[in-house]
Every structure is written in C-alpha cells, then in structure tokens.
Design goal:
rod-shaped; 2 domains; Immunoglobulin-like; alpha+beta
C-alpha cells in the first residue's frame, strides 16, 4: 500500500513542476528573405511585461519564460517600416513566428495652418505696418518719393494724377500721422515736402 502511494506521488511531481509559461521563437528576414538583425520590443499589458531584445545575425530571437497571454511584437530597423504583430502564447510548445520586413517608402507631408500672429482680432479695420526691414531693403525711389513709394506698395493705395497718393476710392481728406503727430496737409510729392524714408 505504501509503495502504491509513493508510485502515485512520483507521477504527480512533474505536474507540480509545470508552470504557465511558454516560449516564442522569432525569425526576421528582409524583403529578399535574407536574415535581418533588428530590435524587437515585446509587450503584454495583461502580464505587465515589456522587454526589448535584438535578434542574432541569423535573424533569430528566442523569448523564454513568457507567461501565457497575447504579446505584441514590434520590429525597429532604420530603412524599414516598423512591423507590429500579435502572438498568442498559450502552451509549453514554443510558438514560432516569421516576420518579413518591408522597405520604408519616402514620405513627405506639407502642413498648412493659419498663423496665430497674422491677424489682430482686436483691430476692427485693416492695418498694414511697414517694418524696419522694409525700410532698409526698399527699392530705389526718385527724390521726395521714398515714403510715398513704400506706402504705395501696400494693398489699397494708389498714385493718381500729379503723384497724388491716397487710398482707393478716397481721394481727399487723407490724414498721415508721423510719430503721433497728425498731418492734415497733402503730403503727396506733387504738393508738399516729402519726409525721406531714412529719417523715419
């Protein structure tokens, strides 16, 4: 009787030695089928498992002692697209997986967006400002017309007879303000002295 119990216990010991762990054997090849050495990230959120391994020169990788579950494998190698695949490890028999890399394509993108500083939402009308760069790099002008030519380069302004500069559809009562001082006189080159751009 005692011998029978010992015999039964000896059959049960291997069962206690088993664990819910498996193994994955990964093989990575390039588009031509040649072994590729790549970095492989292995993740299983359910098992709180994360590891980064590198395949051998023969493109092989063995991940051992993986608790049963679903694992995501991500390959990373410059010049090739990233490959992401799932493998279900659910037995002690090693799971085998072959991954074939693909060459990464040339990707170009153009992002068009509104410039946050382009519009002044607090200004009810249209304002065109002439910065110092425009003054320094302005095209040549005949004497007495440098400022007028700069203003005329802005949208909505026009020269008319006798070099009268004014906003379109508003020929008279155009007011210029220089350093905060309003000038009600006609400042067009044909009627009055011109303030040169180098003096502004």
């Amino acid at each position: 009787m005692k011998a029978a119990h010992l015999l039964l216990l000896s059959y049960a010991l291997p069962v206690f030695g088993q664990a819910d762990q498996g193994e994955l054997q990964l093989n990575v090849v390039d588009p031509a089928g040649v072994a590729a050495k790549v970095s492989v990230r292995i993740v299983s959120e359910a098992n709180q498992y994360s590891a980064t391994l590198i395949t051998t020169a023969e493109g092989r990788l063995v991940a051992e002692h993986l608790p049963y579950g679903i694992y995501r494998f991500e390959t990373h190698r410059p010049g090739f697209d990233e490959v992401s695949t799932f493998v279900d490890v659910h037995s002690a028999i090693p799971a085998r997986q072959t991954i074939q890399l693909t060459l990464s394509s040339v990707k170009q993108s153009v992002v068009v967006g509104a410039d946050d500083t382009l519009l002044n939402t607090d200004q009810p009308g249209s304002v065109n400002r002439l910065g110092s760069a425009l003054f320094q790099n302005r095209p040549g002008s005949i004497p007495g017309r440098s400022i007028a030519d700069l203003v005329n380069s802005q949208p909505g302004w026009v020269y008319e007879g006798s070099a009268v500069l004014h906003p379109r559809d508003s020929e008279y009562q155009t007011q210029f303000v220089v350093d905060g001082i309003p000038l009600t006189d006609n400042c067009s080159p044909g009627f009055g002295p011109e303030i040169e751009a180098d003096n502004v």
